[in-house]
Design a protein that fits this description.
Layout lengths: L1 H8 L15 E6 L6 H15 L10 H22 L2 E5 L2 E6 L5 E6 L3 E7 L2 H6 L1 E8 L8 E6 L1 H14 L10
Antiparallel strand pairs: 1-2, 2-3, 3-4, 5-6, 6-7
């Protein structure tokens, strides 16, 4: 059971590092808590379906049980999917791992990052989340939009510092 729980909740980031080249994790960024609201409401709707079972005719009792179970499974699946969507910042690259049943990984070396756009909608500014959009030297990339990031401006600064320290950008010219 523990192996299944780990498979469902941990994308095993450590096994994806280039340890022989000295790569270390600087920060693992999980989704902001706001992404769990819709899955929680779906689970709640499933539980409410189960609450009505004692109040309906016995011959129809299977319907809310089945609908409730389906909603609960769907909500838990969406919540797990969001939990497994992780953005990782290392001293060499940024990458994103996501997916519940089939896992995907998109990677971008720090040297290919040309620009990071931080977008915080009104509700994101109030709740402390935003979205990061990466522009790279490549025309088409697998890592472009990272949505619902906690404290996106701080994450942007972490990446900018890493790029600067790695010597991938020239020194700043004083005004």
């Amino acid at each position: 059971m523990g192996r299944i729980r780990t498979w469902l909740t941990d994308p095993d980031i450590g096994s994806r590092l280039l340890r022989d080249e000295g790569e270390v994790i600087v920060e693992v960024v999980r989704k902001h808590w706001v992404v769990y609201i819709i899955p929680a409401l779906i689970v709640l709707a499933g539980l409410l379906c189960w609450v009505v079972v004692p109040f309906i005719h016995v011959s129809l009792g299977w319907a809310p049980l089945l609908v409730g179970a389906g909603l609960i499974l769907w909500g838990v699946g969406r919540g797990l999917d969001r939990n497994l969507d992780q953005f990782v910042i290392t001293n060499m690259r940024v990458f994103r791992i996501h997916g519940l049943l089939s896992r995907s990984q998109a990677t971008m070396p720090l040297g290919r990052i040309l620009d990071i756009t931080v977008v915080q909608p009104l509700q994101g500014r109030m709740l402390g989340y935003g979205h990061l959009t990466f522009e790279s030297a490549a025309q088409d990339q697998g890592l472009r939009d990272i949505r619902h990031v906690s404290h996106p401006t701080q994450r942007d600064l972490v990446i900018q510092r890493l790029v600067q320290r790695a010597g991938l950008r020239g020194p700043k010219v004083p005004n």
